[in-house]
Amino acid sequence: MREEAKIVIRRVVFLVVALGITLAFMFPLVWVVLASLKTRLEIFVLPPKWIFLPTLQNYRDILHSDFLYQLKNSLLVAAISTGVSLVFGSLTAYGFSRYPIRGSDNILFWILSLRMLPPIAVVIPFYLLFRSLGLLDTTLALVLVYCIFNISFSIWVLKGFFDEIPIELEEAAKLDGYSPAQVFFRVSLPLVRPGLATTAIFCLIQSLNEFLVALTLTTRKAVTAPVGLAKLQTFLGTDWGRISAAAVIFMVPVVVFTVFVRNELIRGMSFGRMR
Amino acid sequence: MATLVLEKLNLWYGKHTHAVRDVDLVVEDGELCVFLGPSGCGKTSTLRMIAGFVRPTSGKIYLDGQVINDLYPGDRNVAMIFQSYALYPHMTVREQLAFPLQARRLSRQEIAKRVEEIAHFLHLEDFLDRYPQELSAGQRQRVAIGRALIRKPRLFLMDEPLSQLDARLRVEMRANLRKLQQELRITTIYVTHDQTEAQGLADKIMVMHQGRVQQVGKPIEIYENPANLFVAGFIGMPAMNFLRGVLVRGERLAFQGNGVRLCFSRELEGKLVGLPQEEVILGIRPEHLVLASEEKEENTLTGEVYVVEPQSNEYIIDLRVGEEIVKVRLEKRNLPGSPRGGERMRVFFEDRYLYVFDPVTEKRLL
């Protein structure tokens, strides 16, 4: 009897703690969603109103502004740089994982160091570089910069996944009559799908959220959503309702993509062993 | 169907590891040759050179008279069963079986037909749409065999294919493999460290140790006529007893070891007298020792029973003879009752069952 009581208590404590943590993480999200549905006055009422008549005015406003165009820029830049990073990242990672390369540890560390660089340190050189190339305020410039960060990240994550594949699987495919390139595409790459999903999510989020470089390199044409959002803070004041509505819309693509690949993602995050 | 010839094959890993040394071997068409040896003896490295995963540092590999050293693995028409089976986790059984045929660009109908055939042959029809993770160890192994067989290879390579199965299934699959190989007459190389497996399967055994070939021969030859101390000790369960000592030439020749004194029959004495040296290692297999009567003097060892391991139909007895432990394998029906620890026991061996080795070169002298 006492044992059972202990188990029940343990379970209750676990649930309460888990619920607490979940609420703590959900709170800002809930707050933003609620704020996006409130009028300007209601947002600042103290104590906050939890029950109110929702309005879609903020969404209407934001959808009639430049925000959709900026969101399109963001998605374009993020998608292209993620795709490019996955292609180059997986090929490079496979090379490092499978072939003996002289000084590969040093080269890998150098690649990682690109990622460790604080963006503020390189943003001015980039600005000058792209100005002389005539690429300021273009999505291409952003894609290029994000690729530098994302490719190094992809290489590191994917190398771990390729290392996990037993070499015999590739040897078996070679004996079966497949060339090294075919072995890569038909055996190795399908087996790192969880790794590709994980890498894609991280690259996507990184590129969507990036602010500093986007702020510096764009002015009008290539402005991305985070920069656009920040520009809603004007000298006339900050329109929190519209910002909240924009933030909610901005979250949608990542959520959709995450739901889409969630099975792969769970396997990828837990770095499941393959046999 | 093919003949495999290895000629002075050498493999170095880096500058310091000489994994395979001067290996020469001929495997005839349709033969099953077992590479036998302890782990790290170079047997798997030799297999990997034949498969084409590593390039020999020197020497030649001939398959049907053609040098295949520089041929890509996929161009050798060689199939392999890996220790881990190496089934692709992302493919169903059907896809695994079709995979080697797709590489050969066969038509869809032809592939489907051959998959059905092989599945029927290996009793895999009910599992064709399952993934490897959903199969038992025995089923996985059959899939691995099917994937190797489906493209009708010239040469079949097997790297400890039974090591992942439990004891009962292993014996069963061993018989199946042998039957399969004999039916199809595909030249086969089989790597194992298990001598029972080697004895049961092989037409020919190549015993390896420290990268060198120790002996090549039929299973029975290897057992009856081991070329050196290593082979003698490696083949046989329990292992052969070795007694170190000197041959003392007096009125009659005797062996003096570590507290062991042994005199021989006249006939054996005649052979031993001819040996050039005094220091020798004597070898006697546990199964060649039988109970002896008290009055027998020649070819006998007397000792005290130390440990008795009862088996189903026999005892394995550790006999303390002088400072040495001698293992004796006695059938239960030849004994009046179970031997007890501390009991005195006298055992005898026939002349033809005594092996003599040189302690320095470890070569067999007699």
TrEMBL record, chain A:
<dbReference type="GO" id="GO:0055085">
    <property type="term" value="P:transmembrane transport"/>
</dbReference>
<keyword id="KW-1133">Transmembrane helix</keyword>
<keyword id="KW-1003">Cell membrane</keyword>
<dbReference type="GO" id="GO:0005886">
    <property type="term" value="C:plasma membrane"/>
</dbReference>
<dbReference type="InterPro" id="IPR050901">
    <property type="entry name" value="BP-dep_ABC_trans_perm"/>
</dbReference>
<keyword id="KW-0813">Transport</keyword>
<feature type="transmembrane region" description="Helical">
    <location>
        <begin position="243"/>
        <end position="265"/>
    </location>
</feature>
<feature type="transmembrane region" description="Helical">
    <location>
        <begin position="140"/>
        <end position="162"/>
    </location>
</feature>
<dbReference type="Pfam" id="PF00528">
    <property type="entry name" value="BPD_transp_1"/>
</dbReference>
<feature type="transmembrane region" description="Helical">
    <location>
        <begin position="75"/>
        <end position="96"/>
    </location>
</feature>
<dbReference type="InterPro" id="IPR000515">
    <property type="entry name" value="MetI-like"/>
</dbReference>
<feature type="transmembrane region" description="Helical">
    <location>
        <begin position="108"/>
        <end position="128"/>
    </location>
</feature>
<keyword id="KW-0812">Transmembrane</keyword>
<feature type="transmembrane region" description="Helical">
    <location>
        <begin position="12"/>
        <end position="34"/>
    </location>
</feature>
<feature type="domain" description="ABC transmembrane type-1">
    <location>
        <begin position="71"/>
        <end position="261"/>
    </location>
</feature>
<dbReference type="InterPro" id="IPR035906">
    <property type="entry name" value="MetI-like_sf"/>
</dbReference>
<comment type="similarity">
    <text>Belongs to the binding-protein-dependent transport system permease family.</text>
</comment>
<protein>
    <submittedName>
        <fullName>Carbohydrate ABC transporter permease</fullName>
    </submittedName>
</protein>
<keyword id="KW-0472">Membrane</keyword>
<feature type="transmembrane region" description="Helical">
    <location>
        <begin position="183"/>
        <end position="208"/>
    </location>
</feature>
From TrEMBL, chain B:
<dbReference type="InterPro" id="IPR017871">
    <property type="entry name" value="ABC_transporter-like_CS"/>
</dbReference>
<protein>
    <submittedName>
        <fullName>ABC transporter ATP-binding protein</fullName>
    </submittedName>
</protein>
<dbReference type="GO" id="GO:0005524">
    <property type="term" value="F:ATP binding"/>
</dbReference>
<dbReference type="GO" id="GO:0140359">
    <property type="term" value="F:ABC-type transporter activity"/>
</dbReference>
<keyword id="KW-1003">Cell membrane</keyword>
<dbReference type="InterPro" id="IPR012340">
    <property type="entry name" value="NA-bd_OB-fold"/>
</dbReference>
<dbReference type="Pfam" id="PF17912">
    <property type="entry name" value="OB_MalK"/>
</dbReference>
<dbReference type="GO" id="GO:0008643">
    <property type="term" value="P:carbohydrate transport"/>
</dbReference>
<dbReference type="InterPro" id="IPR008995">
    <property type="entry name" value="Mo/tungstate-bd_C_term_dom"/>
</dbReference>
<keyword id="KW-1278">Translocase</keyword>
<dbReference type="InterPro" id="IPR003593">
    <property type="entry name" value="AAA+_ATPase"/>
</dbReference>
<dbReference type="InterPro" id="IPR003439">
    <property type="entry name" value="ABC_transporter-like_ATP-bd"/>
</dbReference>
<dbReference type="Pfam" id="PF00005">
    <property type="entry name" value="ABC_tran"/>
</dbReference>
<dbReference type="GO" id="GO:0016887">
    <property type="term" value="F:ATP hydrolysis activity"/>
</dbReference>
<dbReference type="InterPro" id="IPR040582">
    <property type="entry name" value="OB_MalK-like"/>
</dbReference>
<keyword id="KW-0813">Transport</keyword>
<dbReference type="GO" id="GO:0055052">
    <property type="term" value="C:ATP-binding cassette (ABC) transporter complex, substrate-binding subunit-containing"/>
</dbReference>
<feature type="domain" description="ABC transporter">
    <location>
        <begin position="4"/>
        <end position="235"/>
    </location>
</feature>
<dbReference type="InterPro" id="IPR047641">
    <property type="entry name" value="ABC_transpr_MalK/UgpC-like"/>
</dbReference>
<dbReference type="InterPro" id="IPR027417">
    <property type="entry name" value="P-loop_NTPase"/>
</dbReference>
<keyword id="KW-0547">Nucleotide-binding</keyword>
<dbReference type="InterPro" id="IPR015855">
    <property type="entry name" value="ABC_transpr_MalK-like"/>
</dbReference>
